[in-house]
Structure prediction request, 533 residues.
Amino acid sequence: MAKHIFVTGGVTSSLGKGILCASLAKLLQARGFKVTIQKFDPYINVDPGTLNPYEHGECYVTDDGAETDLDLGHYERFLNVPTSRANNVTTGSIYQTVINKERAGDYLGKTVQVIPHITDEIKRRMLLLGQSGNFDIVITELGGTVGDIESLPYVESVRQLRWELGRDNCLTIHLTLVPYLRAAHELKTKPTQHSVKELLSLGIQPDILVCRTEHPLNLDLRRKLAQFCNVETGSVIEAMDAETIYDVPLLFHKEKLDAAVISKLHLRDTKEPNLNSWKNFLGKLKNPLHEIKIGLIGKYNELPDAYKSIFESFIHAGAVNETRVKVLPVHAVDLEGDYEEVARRLEHLNGILVAPGFGERGIEGKIHAIRYARENNVPFFGICLGMQTACVEFARNVLGLEEASSTEVNPKTPHPIIDMMNDQKKITQKGGTMRLGAYACEVQKKTKAYSAYGSTLIQERHRHRWEFNNQYLEAFEKAGMHASGLNPDTGLVEIMEIKNHPWFVGVQFHPELKSTVENPHPLFVAFVKACIQ
Ligand code: GLN
Prediction:
Protein backbone atom coordinates (compact mmCIF):
# COMPACT_ATOMS: atom_id res chain seq x y z
CA MET A 1 0.00 0.00 0.00
CA ALA A 2 1.25 3.49 -0.79
CA LYS A 3 2.04 5.88 2.05
CA HIS A 4 0.38 9.28 2.00
CA ILE A 5 1.74 12.73 2.72
CA PHE A 6 -0.70 15.63 2.90
CA VAL A 7 0.56 19.18 2.52
CA THR A 8 -1.52 22.07 3.82
CA GLY A 9 -0.78 25.78 3.75
CA GLY A 10 -1.29 28.42 6.38
CA VAL A 11 -1.06 32.20 6.98
CA THR A 12 -1.06 33.29 3.32
CA SER A 13 -1.20 31.86 -0.16
CA SER A 14 1.79 31.92 -2.54
CA LEU A 15 4.23 30.40 -0.04
CA GLY A 16 5.27 27.78 -2.56
CA LYS A 17 3.32 24.70 -1.61
CA GLY A 18 3.71 23.35 -5.14
CA ILE A 19 7.49 23.73 -5.03
CA LEU A 20 7.60 22.18 -1.54
CA CYS A 21 5.68 19.15 -2.81
CA ALA A 22 7.79 18.86 -5.97
CA SER A 23 11.04 19.22 -4.02
CA LEU A 24 10.13 16.68 -1.36
CA ALA A 25 9.00 14.28 -4.07
CA LYS A 26 12.30 14.81 -5.89
CA LEU A 27 14.28 13.95 -2.75
CA LEU A 28 12.23 10.81 -2.11
CA GLN A 29 12.52 9.82 -5.77
CA ALA A 30 16.30 10.35 -5.60
CA ARG A 31 16.33 7.89 -2.69
CA GLY A 32 14.74 5.26 -4.88
CA PHE A 33 11.03 5.62 -4.09
CA LYS A 34 8.29 5.83 -6.69
CA VAL A 35 6.47 9.05 -5.93
CA THR A 36 3.60 11.01 -7.40
CA ILE A 37 1.97 14.28 -6.42
CA GLN A 38 -1.67 15.24 -6.73
CA LYS A 39 -3.34 18.58 -6.24
CA PHE A 40 -6.79 19.16 -4.75
CA ASP A 41 -8.15 22.60 -5.62
CA PRO A 42 -11.03 24.12 -3.68
CA TYR A 43 -12.78 25.99 -6.49
CA ILE A 44 -16.08 25.04 -8.14
CA ASN A 45 -14.83 24.97 -11.74
CA VAL A 46 -14.73 21.34 -12.84
CA ASP A 47 -11.23 22.01 -14.15
CA PRO A 48 -9.15 25.16 -14.76
CA GLY A 49 -9.62 24.86 -18.54
CA THR A 50 -12.31 27.52 -18.59
CA LEU A 51 -10.34 29.94 -16.41
CA ASN A 52 -8.76 33.05 -17.82
CA PRO A 53 -4.96 32.96 -17.29
CA TYR A 54 -5.31 36.14 -15.19
CA GLU A 55 -7.31 34.08 -12.69
CA HIS A 56 -5.09 31.12 -12.19
CA GLY A 57 -2.05 31.31 -14.44
CA GLU A 58 -1.30 28.84 -17.17
CA CYS A 59 -3.50 25.84 -17.79
CA TYR A 60 -1.29 22.76 -17.81
CA VAL A 61 -2.34 19.89 -20.09
CA THR A 62 -1.45 16.27 -19.35
CA ASP A 63 -0.82 13.47 -21.85
CA ASP A 64 -4.32 12.12 -21.29
CA GLY A 65 -5.81 15.49 -22.16
CA ALA A 66 -6.77 16.87 -18.75
CA GLU A 67 -6.65 20.64 -18.32
CA THR A 68 -5.04 21.09 -14.92
CA ASP A 69 -3.44 23.41 -12.40
CA LEU A 70 0.00 24.77 -13.24
CA ASP A 71 1.50 23.08 -10.18
CA LEU A 72 1.31 19.82 -12.12
CA GLY A 73 3.88 21.37 -14.43
CA HIS A 74 6.27 21.70 -11.49
CA TYR A 75 5.61 18.11 -10.51
CA GLU A 76 6.54 16.90 -13.98
CA ARG A 77 9.52 19.22 -14.38
CA PHE A 78 10.99 18.04 -11.08
CA LEU A 79 10.14 14.35 -11.26
CA ASN A 80 10.32 13.72 -15.01
CA VAL A 81 7.28 11.45 -14.65
CA PRO A 82 4.07 12.32 -16.51
CA THR A 83 0.97 13.19 -14.49
CA SER A 84 -2.58 12.42 -15.56
CA ARG A 85 -6.20 13.41 -15.08
CA ALA A 86 -6.16 11.73 -11.67
CA ASN A 87 -3.47 14.12 -10.39
CA ASN A 88 -5.73 17.17 -10.24
CA VAL A 89 -9.09 17.23 -8.50
CA THR A 90 -11.32 20.26 -7.95
CA THR A 91 -14.31 20.73 -5.70
CA GLY A 92 -16.35 21.15 -8.88
CA SER A 93 -15.35 17.71 -10.14
CA ILE A 94 -16.13 16.13 -6.74
CA TYR A 95 -19.60 17.69 -6.69
CA GLN A 96 -20.17 16.75 -10.31
CA THR A 97 -19.55 13.08 -9.48
CA VAL A 98 -21.73 13.18 -6.38
CA ILE A 99 -24.57 15.00 -8.14
CA ASN A 100 -24.44 12.58 -11.09
CA LYS A 101 -24.68 9.69 -8.65
CA GLU A 102 -27.59 11.34 -6.90
CA ARG A 103 -29.41 11.78 -10.23
CA ALA A 104 -28.77 8.13 -11.03
CA GLY A 105 -30.44 7.19 -7.76
CA ASP A 106 -27.28 5.64 -6.33
CA TYR A 107 -27.83 7.06 -2.85
CA LEU A 108 -31.03 5.04 -2.43
CA GLY A 109 -33.19 7.81 -1.05
CA LYS A 110 -30.66 9.16 1.44
CA THR A 111 -30.15 12.89 2.02
CA VAL A 112 -26.90 13.74 0.21
CA GLN A 113 -24.61 15.80 2.45
CA VAL A 114 -21.12 17.30 2.59
CA ILE A 115 -20.29 14.77 5.30
CA PRO A 116 -20.23 11.88 4.48
CA HIS A 117 -20.99 12.01 0.73
CA ILE A 118 -18.68 14.79 -0.42
CA THR A 119 -15.91 13.77 1.98
CA ASP A 120 -16.24 10.12 0.95
CA GLU A 121 -15.79 11.08 -2.69
CA ILE A 122 -12.78 13.26 -1.74
CA LYS A 123 -11.23 10.38 0.19
CA ARG A 124 -11.86 7.97 -2.67
CA ARG A 125 -10.03 10.30 -5.06
CA MET A 126 -7.22 10.93 -2.59
CA LEU A 127 -6.51 7.19 -2.43
CA LEU A 128 -6.94 6.42 -6.13
CA LEU A 129 -3.36 6.90 -7.39
CA GLY A 130 -1.96 5.06 -4.38
CA GLN A 131 -4.11 2.05 -5.23
CA SER A 132 -2.71 1.80 -8.74
CA GLY A 133 0.31 -0.11 -7.45
CA ASN A 134 2.58 2.31 -9.33
CA PHE A 135 3.69 4.37 -6.35
CA ASP A 136 5.30 3.93 -2.93
CA ILE A 137 4.40 7.43 -1.81
CA VAL A 138 1.63 9.82 -2.81
CA ILE A 139 1.95 13.47 -1.90
CA THR A 140 -1.32 15.40 -1.86
CA GLU A 141 -1.21 19.16 -2.05
CA LEU A 142 -4.32 20.89 -0.71
CA GLY A 143 -4.91 24.16 -2.54
CA GLY A 144 -5.92 27.26 -0.60
CA THR A 145 -5.12 28.20 2.96
CA VAL A 146 -6.27 26.41 6.10
CA GLY A 147 -9.28 28.19 7.52
CA ASP A 148 -10.83 29.00 4.13
CA ILE A 149 -14.47 27.94 4.06
CA GLU A 150 -13.90 26.22 0.71
CA SER A 151 -11.15 23.91 1.86
CA LEU A 152 -12.96 22.61 4.96
CA PRO A 153 -14.19 19.37 3.30
CA TYR A 154 -10.64 18.61 2.14
CA VAL A 155 -9.17 19.17 5.59
CA GLU A 156 -11.91 17.04 7.14
CA SER A 157 -11.15 14.26 4.66
CA VAL A 158 -7.48 14.36 5.61
CA ARG A 159 -8.46 14.17 9.28
CA GLN A 160 -10.51 11.04 8.61
CA LEU A 161 -7.82 9.45 6.44
CA ARG A 162 -5.21 9.87 9.16
CA TRP A 163 -7.29 7.57 11.35
CA GLU A 164 -8.21 5.18 8.62
CA LEU A 165 -4.68 4.80 7.24
CA GLY A 166 -2.90 4.91 10.59
CA ARG A 167 0.03 6.96 11.80
CA ASP A 168 2.70 4.97 10.01
CA ASN A 169 1.07 5.40 6.62
CA CYS A 170 0.00 8.99 6.72
CA LEU A 171 1.75 12.24 7.46
CA THR A 172 0.79 15.90 7.35
CA ILE A 173 3.10 18.76 6.57
CA HIS A 174 2.01 22.33 7.19
CA LEU A 175 3.67 25.15 5.26
CA THR A 176 3.55 28.51 7.01
CA LEU A 177 5.15 31.93 6.99
CA VAL A 178 7.54 33.27 9.62
CA PRO A 179 7.59 36.97 8.76
CA TYR A 180 10.46 39.31 9.56
CA LEU A 181 9.54 42.60 11.17
CA ARG A 182 12.17 45.06 10.13
CA ALA A 183 11.36 47.64 12.82
CA ALA A 184 11.77 45.00 15.53
CA HIS A 185 14.64 43.15 13.79
CA GLU A 186 12.79 39.96 14.55
CA LEU A 187 11.25 36.90 12.97
CA LYS A 188 7.75 36.38 14.27
CA THR A 189 6.24 33.01 15.14
CA LYS A 190 2.75 34.10 16.10
CA PRO A 191 1.13 33.72 12.66
CA THR A 192 2.41 30.14 12.56
CA GLN A 193 1.11 29.43 16.05
CA HIS A 194 -2.31 30.71 15.04
CA SER A 195 -2.31 28.78 11.84
CA VAL A 196 -1.47 25.52 13.61
CA LYS A 197 -4.19 26.26 16.17
CA GLU A 198 -6.63 26.62 13.32
CA LEU A 199 -5.53 23.28 11.94
CA LEU A 200 -5.81 21.69 15.39
CA SER A 201 -9.34 23.00 15.74
CA LEU A 202 -10.12 21.04 12.59
CA GLY A 203 -8.65 17.92 14.14
CA ILE A 204 -5.26 17.81 12.47
CA GLN A 205 -1.93 17.91 14.27
CA PRO A 206 0.78 18.59 11.70
CA ASP A 207 3.78 16.27 11.94
CA ILE A 208 6.20 18.60 10.20
CA LEU A 209 6.21 22.39 9.96
CA VAL A 210 7.86 23.98 6.97
CA CYS A 211 8.48 27.66 7.64
CA ARG A 212 8.93 30.05 4.77
CA THR A 213 11.28 32.81 5.86
CA GLU A 214 13.60 35.51 4.55
CA HIS A 215 16.14 34.93 7.36
CA PRO A 216 17.54 31.73 8.85
CA LEU A 217 15.62 30.21 11.77
CA ASN A 218 17.93 29.84 14.77
CA LEU A 219 17.64 27.01 17.27
CA ASP A 220 15.73 29.11 19.82
CA LEU A 221 13.13 29.98 17.27
CA ARG A 222 12.82 26.38 16.17
CA ARG A 223 12.37 25.29 19.77
CA LYS A 224 9.73 27.93 20.31
CA LEU A 225 7.80 26.87 17.22
CA ALA A 226 8.14 23.23 18.23
CA GLN A 227 6.86 23.88 21.71
CA PHE A 228 3.87 25.96 20.72
CA CYS A 229 2.89 23.79 17.79
CA ASN A 230 3.46 20.32 19.34
CA VAL A 231 6.08 19.16 16.86
CA GLU A 232 9.62 17.91 17.42
CA THR A 233 12.34 20.53 17.04
CA GLY A 234 13.82 18.45 14.23
CA SER A 235 10.48 18.68 12.45
CA VAL A 236 10.64 22.44 12.15
CA ILE A 237 12.05 22.91 8.68
CA GLU A 238 13.35 26.20 7.37
CA ALA A 239 12.32 27.24 3.86
CA MET A 240 14.49 30.21 2.96
CA ASP A 241 13.82 32.22 -0.18
CA ALA A 242 15.93 30.62 -2.89
CA GLU A 243 17.76 32.01 -5.92
CA THR A 244 15.94 29.56 -8.16
CA ILE A 245 13.16 27.04 -7.47
CA TYR A 246 15.59 24.33 -8.60
CA ASP A 247 17.73 24.99 -5.49
CA VAL A 248 14.86 24.10 -3.19
CA PRO A 249 15.31 20.29 -3.13
CA LEU A 250 18.93 20.74 -2.05
CA LEU A 251 17.97 23.29 0.61
CA PHE A 252 15.35 20.92 2.02
CA HIS A 253 17.83 18.08 2.00
CA LYS A 254 20.18 20.21 4.07
CA GLU A 255 17.30 20.77 6.48
CA LYS A 256 16.79 16.98 6.60
CA LEU A 257 13.19 17.17 5.45
CA ASP A 258 13.45 13.89 3.54
CA ALA A 259 15.03 12.15 6.53
CA ALA A 260 12.22 13.36 8.79
CA VAL A 261 9.60 12.03 6.40
CA ILE A 262 11.33 8.68 6.09
CA SER A 263 11.58 8.16 9.80
CA LYS A 264 8.00 9.23 10.50
CA LEU A 265 6.56 7.01 7.80
CA HIS A 266 8.84 4.12 8.77
CA LEU A 267 9.98 3.77 5.20
CA ARG A 268 12.71 1.29 4.50
CA ASP A 269 16.08 2.77 5.22
CA THR A 270 17.72 4.06 2.09
CA LYS A 271 21.00 5.56 1.05
CA GLU A 272 21.49 9.28 0.63
CA PRO A 273 19.53 10.63 -2.35
CA ASN A 274 21.36 10.54 -5.64
CA LEU A 275 21.19 14.12 -6.85
CA ASN A 276 24.17 14.11 -9.18
CA SER A 277 22.36 14.96 -12.39
CA TRP A 278 20.31 17.61 -10.59
CA LYS A 279 23.48 19.24 -9.26
CA ASN A 280 25.05 19.04 -12.67
CA PHE A 281 22.06 20.93 -14.11
CA LEU A 282 22.31 23.56 -11.37
CA GLY A 283 26.04 23.95 -12.03
CA LYS A 284 25.38 24.75 -15.67
CA LEU A 285 22.43 26.96 -14.86
CA LYS A 286 24.48 29.11 -12.51
CA ASN A 287 27.66 29.35 -14.59
CA PRO A 288 26.53 30.35 -18.07
CA LEU A 289 29.06 31.07 -20.81
CA HIS A 290 26.66 33.04 -23.02
CA GLU A 291 23.69 35.29 -22.59
CA ILE A 292 20.82 35.81 -25.02
CA LYS A 293 17.66 37.85 -25.06
CA ILE A 294 14.44 36.35 -26.30
CA GLY A 295 11.28 38.37 -26.84
CA LEU A 296 8.19 36.57 -25.62
CA ILE A 297 5.38 38.12 -27.62
CA GLY A 298 2.11 37.51 -25.84
CA LYS A 299 -0.82 39.19 -24.22
CA TYR A 300 -0.78 38.08 -20.61
CA ASN A 301 2.60 39.65 -19.94
CA GLU A 302 1.66 41.31 -16.66
CA LEU A 303 1.37 37.86 -15.21
CA PRO A 304 4.43 35.63 -15.70
CA ASP A 305 2.47 32.62 -14.41
CA ALA A 306 0.45 32.68 -17.63
CA TYR A 307 3.54 31.46 -19.51
CA LYS A 308 5.07 29.48 -16.65
CA SER A 309 6.05 26.41 -18.66
CA ILE A 310 7.65 28.51 -21.41
CA PHE A 311 9.84 30.33 -18.87
CA GLU A 312 10.84 27.05 -17.26
CA SER A 313 11.57 25.42 -20.63
CA PHE A 314 14.03 28.23 -21.35
CA ILE A 315 15.72 27.59 -18.00
CA HIS A 316 16.18 23.91 -18.92
CA ALA A 317 17.28 24.63 -22.50
CA GLY A 318 19.54 27.48 -21.34
CA ALA A 319 21.35 25.18 -18.90
CA VAL A 320 22.02 22.59 -21.63
CA ASN A 321 23.49 25.33 -23.80
CA GLU A 322 25.31 26.93 -20.84
CA THR A 323 23.47 30.11 -21.65
CA ARG A 324 21.54 32.56 -19.55
CA VAL A 325 18.30 33.08 -21.41
CA LYS A 326 16.71 36.39 -20.62
CA VAL A 327 13.08 36.13 -21.59
CA LEU A 328 11.70 39.62 -22.15
CA PRO A 329 7.92 39.83 -22.29
CA VAL A 330 6.64 42.09 -25.08
CA HIS A 331 2.98 43.00 -25.21
CA ALA A 332 1.66 42.08 -28.68
CA VAL A 333 -0.76 45.03 -28.61
CA ASP A 334 2.22 47.40 -28.32
CA LEU A 335 3.56 46.11 -31.64
CA GLU A 336 0.48 47.04 -33.65
CA GLY A 337 1.72 50.46 -34.81
CA ASP A 338 4.10 51.41 -37.58
CA TYR A 339 6.10 48.39 -38.83
CA GLU A 340 9.45 50.21 -39.06
CA GLU A 341 9.11 51.31 -35.47
CA VAL A 342 8.19 47.79 -34.40
CA ALA A 343 11.31 46.49 -36.15
CA ARG A 344 13.42 48.98 -34.21
CA ARG A 345 11.85 47.84 -30.95
CA LEU A 346 12.76 44.23 -31.65
CA GLU A 347 16.28 44.93 -32.89
CA HIS A 348 18.07 44.06 -29.64
CA LEU A 349 16.59 40.56 -29.45
CA ASN A 350 18.47 37.36 -30.34
CA GLY A 351 15.27 35.42 -30.87
CA ILE A 352 11.50 35.80 -30.94
CA LEU A 353 8.87 33.49 -29.53
CA VAL A 354 5.21 34.09 -30.25
CA ALA A 355 3.14 32.62 -27.45
CA PRO A 356 -0.01 30.50 -27.43
CA GLY A 357 -3.29 32.30 -26.87
CA PHE A 358 -6.91 32.82 -27.76
CA GLY A 359 -8.90 35.53 -29.46
CA GLU A 360 -7.94 38.41 -31.70
CA ARG A 361 -6.35 40.88 -29.28
CA GLY A 362 -2.74 41.54 -30.26
CA ILE A 363 -2.79 39.44 -33.45
CA GLU A 364 -1.61 42.26 -35.74
CA GLY A 365 1.30 42.96 -33.36
CA LYS A 366 2.27 39.30 -33.47
CA ILE A 367 2.18 39.39 -37.26
CA HIS A 368 4.56 42.37 -37.25
CA ALA A 369 6.97 40.55 -34.94
CA ILE A 370 6.87 37.42 -37.12
CA ARG A 371 7.49 39.40 -40.29
CA TYR A 372 10.45 41.05 -38.62
CA ALA A 373 11.91 37.67 -37.58
CA ARG A 374 11.32 36.14 -41.01
CA GLU A 375 12.75 39.00 -43.05
CA ASN A 376 15.74 39.58 -40.81
CA ASN A 377 16.81 35.97 -40.24
CA VAL A 378 16.11 36.24 -36.51
CA PRO A 379 15.43 32.81 -34.95
CA PHE A 380 11.69 32.38 -34.51
CA PHE A 381 9.66 29.92 -32.50
CA GLY A 382 5.85 29.96 -32.73
CA ILE A 383 3.77 27.93 -30.34
CA CYS A 384 0.16 27.04 -31.14
CA LEU A 385 -1.43 30.46 -31.83
CA GLY A 386 2.16 31.55 -32.54
CA MET A 387 2.44 28.94 -35.31
CA GLN A 388 -1.00 29.79 -36.66
CA THR A 389 -0.12 33.47 -36.80
CA ALA A 390 3.18 32.68 -38.53
CA CYS A 391 1.21 30.90 -41.24
CA VAL A 392 -1.11 33.88 -41.62
CA GLU A 393 1.88 36.21 -41.90
CA PHE A 394 3.43 34.01 -44.57
CA ALA A 395 0.16 33.85 -46.51
CA ARG A 396 -0.22 37.61 -46.45
CA ASN A 397 3.33 38.76 -47.07
CA VAL A 398 4.83 35.93 -49.14
CA LEU A 399 1.87 34.36 -50.92
CA GLY A 400 0.30 37.78 -51.36
CA LEU A 401 -3.05 36.78 -49.88
CA GLU A 402 -3.61 40.11 -48.21
CA GLU A 403 -6.78 39.22 -46.36
CA ALA A 404 -5.55 35.85 -45.15
CA SER A 405 -6.48 35.12 -41.55
CA SER A 406 -7.59 32.54 -39.05
CA THR A 407 -11.35 32.17 -38.78
CA GLU A 408 -10.89 32.60 -35.04
CA VAL A 409 -9.87 36.20 -35.74
CA ASN A 410 -11.88 36.92 -38.89
CA PRO A 411 -14.68 34.42 -39.55
CA LYS A 412 -15.34 36.02 -42.96
CA THR A 413 -11.81 35.94 -44.36
CA PRO A 414 -11.61 34.90 -48.03
CA HIS A 415 -8.43 32.95 -47.19
CA PRO A 416 -9.01 30.87 -44.04
CA ILE A 417 -5.40 29.71 -43.66
CA ILE A 418 -6.27 28.55 -40.15
CA ASP A 419 -9.71 27.04 -39.80
CA MET A 420 -11.79 24.99 -37.43
CA MET A 421 -12.13 21.26 -38.06
CA ASN A 422 -15.65 20.04 -38.77
CA ASP A 423 -15.89 18.01 -35.57
CA GLN A 424 -15.03 21.16 -33.59
CA LYS A 425 -17.76 23.16 -35.33
CA LYS A 426 -20.46 20.95 -33.80
CA ILE A 427 -19.29 21.60 -30.25
CA THR A 428 -21.38 23.93 -28.10
CA GLN A 429 -19.95 23.28 -24.61
CA LYS A 430 -16.71 25.09 -23.78
CA GLY A 431 -15.17 22.97 -20.97
CA GLY A 432 -12.81 20.15 -21.95
CA THR A 433 -13.80 20.17 -25.62
CA MET A 434 -10.67 21.42 -27.41
CA ARG A 435 -8.24 19.05 -29.12
CA LEU A 436 -6.49 18.09 -25.91
CA GLY A 437 -3.62 15.88 -24.85
CA ALA A 438 -0.96 13.86 -26.60
CA TYR A 439 -1.12 13.17 -30.34
CA ALA A 440 1.45 11.54 -32.58
CA CYS A 441 3.47 13.53 -35.09
CA GLU A 442 5.57 12.18 -37.91
CA VAL A 443 8.68 14.27 -38.40
CA GLN A 444 10.28 14.49 -41.82
CA LYS A 445 13.97 13.92 -42.17
CA LYS A 446 16.32 16.70 -43.26
CA THR A 447 14.33 19.34 -41.43
CA LYS A 448 15.10 21.55 -38.44
CA ALA A 449 12.49 19.65 -36.47
CA TYR A 450 14.23 16.38 -37.23
CA SER A 451 17.66 17.65 -36.34
CA ALA A 452 16.23 18.79 -33.00
CA TYR A 453 14.28 15.61 -32.19
CA GLY A 454 16.54 13.07 -33.88
CA SER A 455 13.44 10.93 -34.32
CA THR A 456 10.69 10.53 -36.90
CA LEU A 457 7.88 9.73 -34.51
CA ILE A 458 7.09 11.97 -31.56
CA GLN A 459 4.17 12.64 -29.24
CA GLU A 460 3.25 16.14 -28.18
CA ARG A 461 0.44 17.72 -26.18
CA HIS A 462 -2.29 19.82 -27.70
CA ARG A 463 -4.80 22.43 -26.58
CA HIS A 464 -6.56 24.21 -29.42
CA ARG A 465 -9.61 24.22 -31.68
CA TRP A 466 -8.17 25.63 -34.92
CA GLU A 467 -5.81 23.91 -37.39
CA PHE A 468 -3.79 24.69 -40.47
CA ASN A 469 -6.07 24.46 -43.51
CA ASN A 470 -4.47 21.81 -45.76
CA GLN A 471 -6.03 23.32 -48.90
CA TYR A 472 -3.23 25.87 -48.75
CA LEU A 473 -0.42 23.43 -48.00
CA GLU A 474 0.79 23.08 -51.58
CA ALA A 475 1.08 26.83 -52.05
CA PHE A 476 3.01 27.14 -48.79
CA GLU A 477 5.39 24.33 -49.71
CA LYS A 478 6.08 25.88 -53.11
CA ALA A 479 6.88 29.21 -51.53
CA GLY A 480 9.32 27.71 -48.99
CA MET A 481 7.27 27.08 -45.88
CA HIS A 482 7.30 23.40 -45.25
CA ALA A 483 5.17 21.07 -43.11
CA SER A 484 7.95 19.15 -41.39
CA GLY A 485 5.60 17.39 -38.99
CA LEU A 486 2.20 15.85 -39.72
CA ASN A 487 -0.24 13.83 -37.69
CA PRO A 488 0.10 10.32 -39.20
CA ASP A 489 -3.59 9.49 -38.72
CA THR A 490 -5.31 12.69 -39.81
CA GLY A 491 -2.73 14.50 -41.92
CA LEU A 492 -3.15 17.62 -39.77
CA VAL A 493 -0.16 19.94 -39.81
CA GLU A 494 1.86 19.77 -36.60
CA ILE A 495 5.08 21.60 -37.48
CA MET A 496 5.77 24.31 -40.07
CA GLU A 497 9.21 25.64 -40.88
CA ILE A 498 10.83 27.96 -43.37
CA LYS A 499 13.64 26.36 -45.33
CA ASN A 500 15.69 29.43 -46.16
CA HIS A 501 15.97 30.82 -42.69
CA PRO A 502 18.43 30.07 -39.87
CA TRP A 503 15.66 28.80 -37.56
CA PHE A 504 11.98 29.51 -38.15
CA VAL A 505 9.76 26.83 -36.62
CA GLY A 506 6.09 26.91 -35.66
CA VAL A 507 4.36 24.09 -33.83
CA GLN A 508 0.67 23.45 -33.41
CA PHE A 509 1.31 21.64 -30.10
CA HIS A 510 2.74 22.77 -26.77
CA PRO A 511 6.36 21.61 -26.40
CA GLU A 512 6.73 23.68 -23.23
CA LEU A 513 4.51 21.19 -21.40
CA LYS A 514 7.01 18.40 -21.82
CA SER A 515 10.29 20.06 -20.88
CA THR A 516 11.81 18.78 -17.64
CA VAL A 517 15.13 19.23 -15.85
CA GLU A 518 16.17 15.77 -16.95
CA ASN A 519 14.69 16.04 -20.45
CA PRO A 520 14.92 19.62 -21.69
CA HIS A 521 12.68 19.94 -24.72
CA PRO A 522 14.65 19.40 -27.96
CA LEU A 523 12.94 22.27 -29.80
CA PHE A 524 13.72 24.73 -27.00
CA VAL A 525 17.30 23.46 -26.90
CA ALA A 526 17.65 23.90 -30.68
CA PHE A 527 15.99 27.33 -30.63
CA VAL A 528 18.32 28.60 -27.89
CA LYS A 529 21.29 27.22 -29.80
CA ALA A 530 20.16 29.05 -32.94
CA CYS A 531 19.81 32.27 -30.94
CA ILE A 532 23.40 32.03 -29.68
CA GLN A 533 24.79 31.81 -33.20
N1 GLN B 1 -6.71 29.91 -30.26
C1 GLN B 1 -6.03 28.91 -31.02
C2 GLN B 1 -6.86 27.65 -31.17
O1 GLN B 1 -7.75 27.40 -30.39
C3 GLN B 1 -4.68 28.59 -30.42
C4 GLN B 1 -4.76 27.97 -29.06
C5 GLN B 1 -3.45 27.98 -28.32
O2 GLN B 1 -2.56 28.76 -28.63
N2 GLN B 1 -3.35 27.15 -27.32
O3 GLN B 1 -6.63 26.88 -32.05
Residues 114-128 form the longest helix (15 residues). The pocket of glutamine is lined by residues 356-358, 384-385, 408, 463-466 (CB under 6 Å).
